[in-house]
Amino acid sequence: GNSVTQMEGPVTLSEEAFLTINCTYTATGYPSLFWYVQYPGEGLQLLLKATKADDKGSNKGFEATYRKETTSFHLEKGSVQVSDSAVYFCALSNSGTYKYIFGTGTRLKVLA
Amino acid sequence: DARVTQTPRHKVTEMGQEVTMRCQPILGHNTVFWYRQTMMQGLELLAYFRNRAPLDDSGMPKDRFSAEMPDATLATLKIQPSEPRDSAVYFCASGLVPPATSSYAGELFFGEGSRLTVL
Fold this sequence. Notes:
Chain A is 0% helix and 53% strand. By secondary structure, chain A is mainly beta.
């Protein structure tokens, strides 16, 4: 079945450091891939998405590239800010099943 | 701004009591999901509906949980009787999911969650 594996947290970085959160997936067909972010006390919100191989999703300085050959969708940001502290979820969905599968989430803490 | 609305935001109840959580999806969305979030299990899919019809509720404990969509503007998740292990944050999410012939699965919009504590 479909699954998403993302790196364990928490990840603690200093402000302006480079961020990578790894995400790999297992899926049949050609899923859409997503990164969602959850700030304290809030629901998840979409950060970025990619719908086909080699697509790059980007938003708010975050980027992730859909790599079919390595079944990966790693999240990166060149310079993190304290306001980026949150939990980040990798997710996939196959349009045929309408089911969205989420990873376990990675907590990011950015120190000033 | 269109958004998913969940009530109640917080609920504290005693073991054995009935709990009902409600969700108003974004108008026009055709798919509604219920997720449960805990520290130990992360985000678990409990049930989801497309065009108000239940598609999959295999993630839900059938003996005590039930999910319904009485109309397009309301989804409910009921626990009866509640147990301490049901303590969690319950999220509702809605989306406009295209037909299976489309290659793109649309994004989900989440509510702020209902935090349930069962004593």
